Amino acid sequence: MEKLEVTLRAATPADEPFLFALRRATMNEHLERAGESTDEHVHWERLRYRYNDAYIVCCGSERLGLFKFFRDPDAWTIVQIQILPSYQGRGIADHLIGEFLRQADGAGVPVKLSVLKGNRAMNLYERFGFQVVDATDTSLEMRRG
Fold first, then answer.
1. Helical H runs in the chain?
2. In what order do the strands lie in the sheet with 131-135?
3. Is 21 helix (H, G, I), strand (E, B) or coil?
4. Does residue 114 sit in helix, strand or coil?
5. Per-residue confidence of the chain (145 residues) as pLDDT tens digits?
6. What is the CA angle 73-19-48, rounded to 5?
7. How does DSSP classify residue 53?
8. What pLDDT, on a 0 to 100 scale, did the predictor assign at position 92?
9. DSSP states of 1-15
10. What integer pLDDT is reported at residue 2 of this predicted model?
11. Which SS3 state, helix, strand or coil, does residue 17 take?
12. How far apart are CA 52 and CA 12, in angstroms?
């Protein structure tokens, strides 16, 4: 499979319909398994959470997904990574996480994230050295560094 050249650009209000459809396509299965709501209102709340930290993953002008993150002085946080199902398995999330971790290592800061229990992304995060540091009924808090 060909390697895609991906770029990030800041999300704009015009991206919201794409991001809503992306969230439903990538998260409903995991939310249902965890016993969490898939209600439209809940999706919109999560979509708008830290919207200024949301970046559209692109290949040329085509939107492939979302990478939402922020950088605090004491730790950097990956909020969400969502890739369209038709583009999953092509190393896009690997590339995004790898680059983010290289930058965090350069800055000497740990990286943290939260993942729903049972989400197969857990394997990806473990491969990058993330370890579970806390848990709730539905999610795992992970940290690297």
1. 16-34, 40-48, 92-107, 121-127
2. 7-10, 54-59, 62-71, 76-83, 111-116, 139-144, 131-135
3. helix
4. strand
5. 566 799 999 999 999 999 999 988 888 676 777 667 677 878 788 878 899 999 999 999 999 999 999 999 999 999 999 999 999 989 999 999 999 999 999 999 999 999 988 888 899 999 999 999 999 988 999 999 8
6. 50
7. G
8. 94
9. -PPP--EEEE--GGG
10. 60
11. helix
12. 9
Domains of the chain, residue spans: 7-144
- Decide: 145 and 105 in contact? Cβ < 8 Å: yes
Instruction: Give per-residue burial for 23-41: e unless 16+ CB within 10 Å, then b.
Output: beebbebbbeebebeeeee
Sign of CA dihedral 11, 13, 18, 19: positive
Measured between its terminal Cα atoms, the distance across the chain in Å is 32
β-pairing verdict for 54-59 and 62-71:
antiparallel
Q: CATH number for 7-144: choose from 3.30.1330.30, 1.10.10.60, 3.40.30.10, 3.40.630.30.
A: 3.40.630.30
In this prediction, residue 34 carries a pLDDT of 67
